[in-house]
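Continuing the series of single-chain predictions for the mutant panel. This is the parent chain; the variants come on the following pages.
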Amino acid sequence: MSDQPIEIKPSSHWFDDMWWLNQDERQAEKNTGYTVINPGTTNGTILGANLCTLNLLQGTEFMPDLTGAVVFVEDDDQTFPALFDRDLQSLIHLPNFKNVKGLVIGRFQKKSQMTAELLRQIIKSKKELAHIPVIAEADFGHTDPKITLPIGGKVALSADQNGAKITFLEH
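Parent structure:
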C-alpha cells in the first residue's frame, strides 16, 4: 500500500459502448462531473462492488463488514431505477449499515434509464442516508473510463454545493 494521497478527478468524457467492436467510431459523452446528493465530509475504508452482487453475499460468511466503510456501488444496464432502489434498501437494512460513513455511486449505463433526478429521489427517500455524504456519477462500473478501487484502502470524501472530491489516502 501507498500512503500518498491521490485525488480521483472525473474524466472529461465517458463512453457507454461495446468498445471491443470498433475503437475508431466510439461515441463520447461529455462528463459533467460528480453529482453531490448529500453534502458532507468523511474518511473511511473503501468497500466497493456491483450492488446486486454485493447483496448476494448477505447472510453468508463472505459479506464484508460495513463498519467504518465508504461504500462504492455500481450496477449494470439490467438494473432499472426501481430495482436499484430495492437493492439499495436491502443493503441499508443490514444491521451494521448504520456504521457506513459515506456512499459513492458509479455512473449508470444509458439503458438503465436512471436519471439524476430519479437517483436523487431514491437517495433522499432513504432516511438512513441523510447523515452521510453521497456522491454519484463516479468513474467506475460498466462505463468507460473506470478507476480501479483499492478495496480495503482509505478514502476521504468532501462534498458540498461547489462540488465533490474523492481522495484515496491509502491504496
